[in-house]
């Protein structure tokens, strides 16, 4: 059976060029980048070059504003927890949205248990916050505003530039979780007044267990992980140099032109899927809004009257990999907090929606097969 | 008949050794095997630990080892509505229900079967110790498991011909030690996993305590049949006919024999106790029942026939005469020999040799045509 992968928001296959870079680095550079000898210097050089390339990719002012972490979750945790703790003297109020990833929401809950106050901004049916809500929520004691750039479940793309401008005029720092957006959008942390930005390498055909946290010059806080003085004391633990070289390679392959081409490709695949389903008489509705308020690689669809678990199981048995938001391990699908925020807890969309997310390897033929299979399955399940 | 590799069998995998071996054997025989874990009950405790999560982990390990895809499905709502509500309702009426019988009838061979059919299953397979014999016309006969100690036909006795035609019980031919040996040989993670005991949703917990969380316990008096007060009971639902443990009264009656539950009266909230394992109030010579369900077409045997029966699980068969009502909705069962502790709410299961014919739910037990005060 052929397998078709349409879950690229969960993770992506590694680019062969990335694998080659990593394999080569593993074979030749094994030193500890903190060591003062020849081997250490070799590793350090790879690390420095990679950091420079990555800093350029988001227009960071300085290379050392890039701190390598174990991935998006650690970057998010660090940004939220360490900012809150480091700025307690300024205030104990934080702002985020109802549709953040758990890597933001769980640290927020943790901080609430420590006595911090958190405002969760609501979203509309497109999955977008209101700038007026943000302005009203900001207070002199607000120390952090954390709003994701692009949502992982429905793809909603927040107005980051406007948010950056509003937050810049307050006492708060602005963090954005760019895990989904980094491989698809051009990001300029200076132009957008971003103080903290999280990414993950495996969402853009790089290695897993790696990401970075960008920190603007005004951000001062300790490492979440306690230990050695790596990453200028900003993240303890020996750097995974081969993986970082691979990350840089993956980023280098995604210049503005490539990203624009991917956006166009994914928009076309979305269009193909939507019109194909319509043509076949499948009853459905897209959850969320349209581009440009949306990342093109994520398409969340409500299949009216078809529960998501048998849908997903049938798809997998037909060789198609998709996702239903956050499925709990033992059978129950936790209703998505993102769809709940957009449509309310009574909406049938919570139990009857699937997410398809595209990657560079997907083709129009695959989408045709998907349309054919979805038509068959939705008929059977009704 | 479809080729085996074109025949999809959906295995209900619980994370135990029996269903693990079922999946393993079917895969080895060349079927298109898919494992599906059912979550029927949420027992997540305060620390977030849930046995279903651990069981699902085992399903994942075993299925990966065998090389089959695995999924899960949630039937918490169906289980609550169709099994647990019935379970509580029966207790509320002073009866002693059998939730496993209901679980097979309503969940494993209904909700799960329906779900499996939506995944294009040709059959579902379960780790029950029971055998199926198929006639050339497609009719199935349910036979006792080869392992006499483990035979589970009692719990399958309310299933219909249609339900069983879609079922496979690959380990019904095996004895338990052989199942464990196969699991070990195949390197399955569940080879040495402890068997689950008791009712699935209660597990190892204290039964009375569990029940009291759902049904208010109404304490009352414990009396002899002559009306002598012997103590207090803590809610009729906590006692079953013929039970000895937990009464809190020692000898000192007519004889020095231990005390047993010999009856209940829901109307006066009285628990009747009497002395001696063989107390005469514990013996019935007849019962009547409803929820009559036969696997085999009944016409073949007529409205009245002789066969053997079990009145509870793990009991030897007794000879009985079965009399069906006109509309086949009720049954009267007359015993060859008086039987002890025939309990309303339990199943009376009929056998002809190794074949399980079907069952009914016991409503009343009689002694010399007088109904025994059991509810």
From TrEMBL, chain A:
UniProt catalytic activity? (sulfur carrier)-H + L-cysteine = (sulfur carrier)-SH + L-alanine
Q: InterPro entries annotated for this entry?
A: Aminotrans_V_dom, Cysteine_dSase, PyrdxlP-dep_Trfase, PyrdxlP-dep_Trfase_major, PyrdxlP-dep_Trfase_small
Q: Which Gene3D superfamilies match?
A: 1.10.260.50, Aspartate Aminotransferase, domain 1, Type I PLP-dependent aspartate aminotransferase-like (Major domain)
Question: What keywords tag this UniProt record?
Answer: Iron, Iron-sulfur, Lyase, Metal-binding, Pyridoxal phosphate, Transferase
Cofactor(s), by name:
pyridoxal 5'-phosphate
Name the domain of life: Bacteria
UniProt entry tagged with the keyword Transferase? yes
State the family it belongs to: Belongs to the class-V pyridoxal-phosphate-dependent aminotransferase family. NifS/IscS subfamily.
Q: What is this protein called?
A: Cysteine desulfurase selenocysteine lyase
Q: Recall the taxonomic lineage recorded for the source organism.
A: Bacteria, Bacillati, Bacillota, Bacilli, Lactobacillales
Automatic annotation (TrEMBL), chain B:
What processes does the entry annotate via GO biological process terms?
methylation; tRNA wobble position uridine thiolation
Residue numbers annotated as active site: 103, 200
Domain tRNA-specific 2-thiouridylase MnmA-like C-terminal, by residue range, is 289-362
- Principal subcellular localisation of the protein: cytoplasm
Q: Which GO terms describe its molecular function?
A: ATP binding; methyltransferase activity; tRNA binding; tRNA-uridine 2-sulfurtransferase activity
EC number(s) recorded for this UniProt protein:
2.8.1.13
Summarize the protein's role: Catalyzes the 2-thiolation of uridine at the wobble position (U34) of tRNA, leading to the formation of s(2)U34.
Q: Which family does it belong to?
A: Belongs to the MnmA/TRMU family.
Domain of life here?
A: Bacteria
Write down the species. Answer: Liquorilactobacillus ghanensis DSM 18630
Q: Where is this site: Interaction with tRNA?
A: 128, 346
Q: Where does ATP bind?
A: 12-19, 38, 127
Segments for region (Interaction with tRNA): 150-152, 312-313
Q: Where is the tRNA-specific 2-thiouridylase MnmA-like central domain?
A: 209-275
Q: What is this protein called?
A: tRNA-specific 2-thiouridylase MnmA
Q: Which segments carry the region annotation Interaction with target base in tRNA?
A: 98-100
Listed under catalytic activity are: S-sulfanyl-L-cysteinyl-[protein] + uridine(34) in tRNA + AH2 + ATP = 2-thiouridine(34) in tRNA + L-cysteinyl-[protein] + A + AMP + diphosphate + H(+)
Query: Sorted alphabetically, which keywords does the UniProt record give?
Result: ATP-binding, Cytoplasm, Disulfide bond, Methyltransferase, Nucleotide-binding, RNA-binding, Transferase, tRNA processing, tRNA-binding
Question: Which Pfam family, just one, is annotated for this protein?
Answer: tRNA_Me_trans_C
Q: Name one GO cellular component term.
A: cytoplasm
Give all cystine bridges in this chain: 103-200
Q: Where in the cell is it found?
A: Cytoplasm
Key word ATP-binding present: yes
């Amino acid at each position: 059976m052929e397998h078709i992968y349409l879950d690229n928001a969960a993770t992506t296959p590694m680019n062969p060029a990335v694998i080659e870079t990593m394999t080569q680095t593993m074979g030749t550079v094994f030193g500890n980048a903190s060591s003062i000898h020849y081997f250490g210097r070799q590793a350090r050089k790879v690390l420095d070059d990679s950091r420079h390339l990555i800093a350029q990719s988001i227009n960071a002012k300085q290379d050392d504003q890039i701190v390598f972490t174990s991935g998006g979750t650690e970057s998010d945790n660090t940004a939220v927890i360490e900012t809150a703790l480091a700025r307690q003297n300024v205030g104990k109020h934080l702002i985020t949205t109802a549709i953040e990833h758990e890597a933001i929401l769980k640290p927020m809950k943790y901080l609430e248990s420590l006595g911090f106050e958190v405002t969760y901004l609501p979203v509309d049916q497109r999955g977008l916050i209101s700038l007026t809500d943000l302005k009203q929520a900001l207070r002199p004691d607000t120390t952090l505003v954390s709003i994701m750039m692009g949502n992982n479940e429905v793809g909603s793309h927040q107005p980051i530039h406007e948010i950056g401008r509003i937050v810049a005029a307050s006492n708060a720092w602005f963090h954005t979780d760019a895990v989904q957006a980094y491989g698809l959008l051009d990001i300029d942390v200076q132009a957008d007044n971003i103080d903290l930005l999280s990414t993950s390498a495996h969402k853009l055909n790089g290695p897993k267990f790696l990401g970075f946290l960008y920190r603007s010059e005004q951000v001062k806080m300790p490492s979440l992980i306690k230990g050695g003085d790596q990453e200028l004391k900003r993240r303890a633990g020996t750097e995974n140099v081969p993986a970082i070289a691979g990350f840089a390679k993956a980023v280098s392959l995604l210049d503005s032109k490539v990203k624009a081409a991917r956006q166009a490709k994914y928009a076309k695949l979305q269009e193909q899927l939507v019109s194909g389903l319509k043509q076949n008489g499948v009853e459905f509705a897209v959850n969320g809004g349209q581009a440009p308020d949306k990342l093109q690689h994520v398409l969340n669809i409500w299949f009216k009257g078809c529960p998501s678990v048998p849908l997903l199981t049938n798809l997998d048995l037909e060789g198609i990999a998709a996702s239903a938001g956050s499925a709990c391990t033992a059978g129950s699908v936790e209703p998505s907090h993102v769809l709940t925020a957009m449509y309310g807890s009574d909406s049938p969309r919570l139990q009857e929606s699937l997410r398809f997310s595209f990657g560079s390897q997907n083709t129009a033929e695959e989408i045709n097969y998907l349309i054919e299979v979805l038509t068959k399955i939705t008929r059977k399940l009704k | 008949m479809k080729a085996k590799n074109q025949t999809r069998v959906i295995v209900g995998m619980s994370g135990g050794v029996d269903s693990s071996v079922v999946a393993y054997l079917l895969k080895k025989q060349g079927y298109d095997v898919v494992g599906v874990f059912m979550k029927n009950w949420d027992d997540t405790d305060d620390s977030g630990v849930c046995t279903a999560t651990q069981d699902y982990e085992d399903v994942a390990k075993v299925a990966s080892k065998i090389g089959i895809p695995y999924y899960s499905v949630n039937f918490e709502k169906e289980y609550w509505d169709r099994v647990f509500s019935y379970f509580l309702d029966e207790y509320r009426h002073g009866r002693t229900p059998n939730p496993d019988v209901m679980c097979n009838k309503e969940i494993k061979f209904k909700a799960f079967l329906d779900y499996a059919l939506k995944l294009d299953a040709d059959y579902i397979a379960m780790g029950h110790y029971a055998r199926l014999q198929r006639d050339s016309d497609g009719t199935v006969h349910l036979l006792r498991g080869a392992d006499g100690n483990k035979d589970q036909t009692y719990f399958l006795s309310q299933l219909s011909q249609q339900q069983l035609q879609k079922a496979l019980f690959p380990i019904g031919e095996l004895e338990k030690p052989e199942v464990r040996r196969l699991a070990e040989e195949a390197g399955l993670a569940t080879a040495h996993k402890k068997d689950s005991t008791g009712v699935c949703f209660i597990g190892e917990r204290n039964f009375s305590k569990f029940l009291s969380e759902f049904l208010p316990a109404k304490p009352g008096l414990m009396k002899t049949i002559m009306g002598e007060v012997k103590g207090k009971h803590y809610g009729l639902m906590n006692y079953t006919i013929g039970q000895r443990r937990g009464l809190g009264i020692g000898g000192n009656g007519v004889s020095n024999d231990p005390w047993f539950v010999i009856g209940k009266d829901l109307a006066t909230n009285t628990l009747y106790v009497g002395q001696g394992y063989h107390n005469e109030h514990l013996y019935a010579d007849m019962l009547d029942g409803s929820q009559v369900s036969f696997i085999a077409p009944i016409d073949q045997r007529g409205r009245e026939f002789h066969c053997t029966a079990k009145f509870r699980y793990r009991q030897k068969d007794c000879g009985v005469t079965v009399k069906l009502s006109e509309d086949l909705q009720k049954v009267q069962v007359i015993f060859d020999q008086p039987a002890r502790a025939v309990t309303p709410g339990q199943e009376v299961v009929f056998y002809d040799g190794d074949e399980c014919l079907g069952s009914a739910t016991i409503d009343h037990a009689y002694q010399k045509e007088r109904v025994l005060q059991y509810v």
